[in-house]
Design brief:
Blueprint (H helix, E strand, L loop, with lengths): L1 E4 L2 E4 L4 E7 L7 E8 L6 E6 L6 E3 L7 E6 L4 E6 L8 E9 L12 E2 L3 E6 L1
Parallel strand pairs: 2-11
Antiparallel strand pairs: 1-3, 3-8, 4-5, 4-9, 5-6, 7-8, 9-10, 9-11
């Protein structure tokens, strides 16, 4: 089970940190990812991190502004979002995939959190 939190309303240029807490005792064996879905649009990939937390990958639109990290001792993955833009407004979802590698598409993920809303005002 995945529980995302940390969304909210922020002005353009601001920052937010999303958290996703996972249940279970084998968290490090799952690759983790963040996706987002803006109103009227398809869900899209944002960032991914490998099971050990060493390897990360970002969508071009967020690279250099967002940072994904995980704390396996706390069964939690984070998404630090800096320099937020109005176009970052979306519901953000965390996801887990079996196997510790990176996943960049929706179909590679087996489990999904409920989503947390991020709204960036201009």
């Amino acid at each position: 089970q995945l529980q995302a939190s940390g969304g909210g309303l922020v002005q353009a240029g601001g920052s937010l940190r999303l958290s996703c807490a996972a249940s279970g005792r084998t968290f490090s064996t799952y690759g983790m990812g963040w996706f987002r879905q803006a109103p009227g649009k398809e869900r899209e990939f944002v960032a991914a991190v490998s099971g050990g937390g060493v390897i990360t990958y970002y969508a071009y639109s967020v690279k250099g502004r967002f940072t994904i990290a995980r704390d396996n001792a706390k069964n939690t993955v984070y998404l630090q979002m800096n320099g937020l833009k109005p176009e970052d407004t979306a519901v953000y979802y965390c996801a887990a995939r079996e196997g510790a590698g990176l996943g960049r598409t929706l179909s590679e993920y087996n489990y999904w959190g409920q989503g947390t809303l991020v709204t960036v005002s201009s």
